[in-house]
């Protein structure tokens, strides 16, 4: 069975940007980038363009700020972490 499509957790950094091209060449498949928006606005600036420019066929940026705060941050604060 050959791989047709891969979803890559994409940060926009050098490592994940290189991985897009490497995965495409190594496995001859489509690469879809995925990023989670947990409030790091400046890091998301230009992310879509960068992912597409480095070879991703699509990029999905999901707004997870509320879920991140409720499920992780509030629990850490409550635990005194």
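Sequence proposed for the structure above (81 residues):
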């Amino acid at each position: 069975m050959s791989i047709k499509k891969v979803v890559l957790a994409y940060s926009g950094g050098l490592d994940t940007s290189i991985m897009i091209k490497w995965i495409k060449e190594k496995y001859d498949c489509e690469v879809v980038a995925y990023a989670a928006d947990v409030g790091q606005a400046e890091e998301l600036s230009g992310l879509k363009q960068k992912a597409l420019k480095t070879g991703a066929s699509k990029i999905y940026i999901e707004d997870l700020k509320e879920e991140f705060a409720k499920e992780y941050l509030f629990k850490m604060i409550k635990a005194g972490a």
